[in-house]
Write a structure and sequence with these properties.
Keywords: Carbohydrate metabolism, Glycosidase, Hydrolase, Polysaccharide degradation, Signal, Xylan degradation
CATH architecture of the largest domain: 5 Propeller
Radius of gyration: 31 Å
Structural class: mainly beta
CATH topology of the largest domain: Tachylectin-2, Chain A
Family: Belongs to the glycosyl hydrolase 43 family.
InterPro entries: CBM6, Cellulose-bd_IV, CenC_carb-bd, Galactose-bd-like_sf, Glyco_hydro_43, Glyco_hydro_beta-prop_sf, Glycosyl_Hydrlase_43_Enz
Number of domains: 4
Number of helices: 4
Number of strands: 40
Distance between the termini: 116 Å
Pfam families: CBM_4_9, CBM_6, Glyco_hydro_43
Protein name: Arabinoxylan arabinofuranohydrolase
């Protein structure tokens, strides 16, 4: 009989975790620590590492895991440590930073299965309301840019990162047991874009891959808090997207379109701690951009509360002086001169900038530790405040507050982030809150709020004297501006309302929008993973007086099923049924159907999906309605056609349009 001893220690992605190589291969000393192999305090095998000479808590053995771990993966780190401590004594470096021995150090990737329940489908946005802008996906730190009759919302891609294959992955952060944990923002590498011409029907434009190896800005680790602008350069309209690399600097991407593709024109941060005038900025993030009437451009950024030896004084919390403004070069991707300090009372984060008339408005979010009254002004915590100036570089004068913390309106608080914009002669404020997440908690699929945010819009009032009134965060949101034209191709990723989701990141648990090509996340977006019982809707669809007679859809058949086209409610009258055959999910095709009657007037249109209970039915790329043939026009009735007694001579036919919404006037014949 033979006895086999234990195998070599498995350190996972760490090499030589058992220190059995007879050397400190791949291990190095961090800080002032000294490392030496020894056998006296080994946990297993022949050796352990003995650590001496520590002067700081982080002093000890380190090993790089670059290239060895998977982005978004969950890892279990363990080590066996031998240490001798004093029984009693006053804390000091000699006792607290003692020598120790370590052995069997491992870092192993776990296979995580999310354990939170599926819950019930939760539609955070009720039919007839407009907030949140989308309830099938998160999106935070909004910035609104108006261009060519559309509002483009750029948002931090909460919960998203880019995997090793370059694909955008949306997933909650989880602990080792698969439970959802609070959003740390540390994995976010994308910026999401949606757009609308009417403020209610929002078209998903996809995700911009910004940071990381497969992002446009490979030098950046994260992409937070976007700000966008456009400017004519050399006779061509160019688009600029500014973003925060965590709190470490501001980057910029450029494009010929508001939706991309995007590229990094400079290959490094636009603004960093090396930029003149930035000393004293605690957090180098949250950009805002302004292109002035004369074409000059300015970038606003910064935030954070300074401290001394880990403690912030009242002066530091009340006047952090951590916001900056710097002029941009004519190319919009360089800076000119030195950054100027904006002394915004109680500033925390979230720079905003607007020009109204001849006045510049700088807005920001206040911190959570300042004095209740600063320079005679009562300033709440976590609130959007604003200042004004006649010069884009300042100085700015404090004026008041605009928007209370989201917790005031929706229960779940957290940080506050906003942007103000004008569209169709009305001012609005866009901001984020945890409204979708709250719906998921109420539906049972999340245990509590974890800091995943959603974008909203409400009206903003500006007085004749330039004073901004207090905005109110609501679920009702804003009214539709205009109507939607159904007679051209309408992307199925355009959604006013939908049936909701059970889980924000499980593809089979509710309405989903995804790129048609996974390798091109900013390309064509489609309604994906359609299941039985789900529905989406378009608001204020204007069919006109002639009306529509047919409907068609571009689809990718899978299990197959039907689409019921309904008017004015999810269970409204069925005016058309599209039949989608079964297929292999490889070839797109167009299905069409005649409408049961000519649909005229303006309606909300609901597409409800029917099929096998457990089947992925199909994907939808677009919807198109076709106009009915125009009715024959009868002869003009003039004086020559009418007898002296006032009776029309001969037989005439005509149709009267009374202009009543959702009513059709019958044809009368006189003889």
């Amino acid at each position: 009989m033979s006895v086999t001893g234990p195998g070599a220690f498995d350190g996972g992605v760490l090499a030589n975790g058992g220190f059995e190589a007879g050397a400190l291969d791949l291990w190095a000393a961090n800080g002032s620590a000294g490392l030496a192999l020894g056998s006296d305090d080994k946990a297993s095998g022949a050796c352990s590492v003995h650590v001496t000479g520590r002067k700081a808590a982080g002093d000890g053995p380190i090993q790089s895991v670059a290239g060895a771990i998977t982005a978004g993966g969950t890892y279990d780190v363990s080590a066996k440590v031998f240490v001798e401590t004093v029984w009693t004594g006053t804390p000091d470096a000699a006792n607290d930073l003692m020598d120790f021995s370590a052995d069997d150090i491992s870092m192993k990737e776990e296979t995580v299965v999310q354990t939170h329940p599926s819950g019930d489908a939760a539609a955070a946005k009720a039919v007839g309301t407009s907030n949140p802008l989308m309830d099938y996906q998160y999106g935070a730190d909004p910035w609104a840019m108006v261009y060519d009759g559309r509002v483009y919302e750029y948002m931090t891609g909460d919960g998203s990162h880019i995997d090793d294959d370059g694909h955008v992955v949306r997933a909650y952060e989880t602990d080792g047991s698969g439970n959802v944990k609070d959003n740390s923002y540390g994995r976010i590498q994308t910026i999401d874009v949606i757009s609308s011409a009417d403020m209610v029907n929002w078209r998903n434009e996809g995700a911009i891959k910004v940071a990381g190896t497969h992002g446009a800005a490979t030098w950046a680790s994260n992409s937070w808090a976007p700000a966008a602008a456009h400017r004519t350069i050399d006779g061509k309209e160019k688009f600029f997207l500014y973003f925060a690399n965590s709190a470490g600097g501001i980057g910029v991407l450029t494009s010929d379109s508001p939706t991309g593709p995007w590229n990094d024109p400079i290959g490094e941060p636009l603004v960093s701690s090396a930029t003149p005038g930035t000393s004293g900025v605690v957090w180098m993030f949250d950009p805002a951009v302004l292109v002035d009437d004369d074409g000059s451009a300015y970038l606003y950024f910064g935030g954070g509360v300074p401290s001394t030896n880990g403690t912030s004084s009242a002066e530091q919390t009340d006047h952090p002086k951590s916001s900056r403004v710097i002029r941009l070069g004519d190319d919009m991707v360089s800076t000119v001169g030195s950054a100027a300090t904006i002394d915004a009372p109680a500033v925390f984060e979230d720079s905003g900038i607007n020009k109204i008339g001849d006045t510049y408005y700088y807005s920001y979010c206040t911190n959570f530790s300042h004095s209740a009254t600063i320079d005679g002004h009562s300033i709440p915590t976590g609130t959007i405040a604003y200042m004004t100036s006649k010069d884009p570089m300042g100085p700015f004068t404090y004026q008041g507050t605009i928007l209370a913390n989201p917790g005031t309106f929706f229960g779940a608080g957290g940080n506050n982030h906003h942007a103000m914009f004008e569209f169709q002669d009305q001012w609005y404020i866009t901001y984020h809150s945890q409204t979708v997440q709250t719906a998921l908690v109420e539906g049972g699929s999340l245990d509590t709020e974890h800091g995943y945010r959603s974008t909203q819009i409400d009206r903003l009032s500006i007085g004749a004297d330039g004073t901004i009134g207090q905005a109110t965060g609501t679920y009702q949101g804003v009214a539709q501006v205009g109507t939607l034209d159904p007679y051209g191709e309408v992307s199925a990723a355009t959604i006013a309302w939908d049936s909701g989701i059970q889980d924000a990141y499980q593809a089979s648990s509710g309405v989903r929008v995804a790129p048609q090509d996974a390798d091109d996340p900013t390309g064509t977006q489609v309604l994906a993973n359609v299941d039985d019982g789900e529905w989406t809707a378009l608001a204020g669809v204007a069919f006109g007086t002639t009306g529509a007679s047919t409907v068609s859809a571009s689809v990718l058949p899978r299990a197959g099923g039907t689409v019921k086209v309904r008017l004015d409610a999810p269970d409204g009258d069925v005016v058309g049924t599209l039949t989608v055959p079964a297929g292999g999910g490889t070839s797109w095709t167009t299905v069409s159907a005649d409408l049961a009657r000519t649909v005229t007037g303006t309606h909300d249109v609901f597409f409800t999906f029917v099929g096998g209970a457990d089947d992925h039915l199909f994907d939808v790329g677009s919807w198109t309605f076709t106009k009915a043939a125009a009715p024959a026009t009868g002869p003009v009735i003039d004086a020559a056609s009418v007898s002296a007694g006032g009776v029309v001579s001969g037989t005439r036919a005509f149709q009267v349009d009374l202009g009543v919404r959702r009513r059709t006037c019958r044809t009368r014949t006189w003889s």
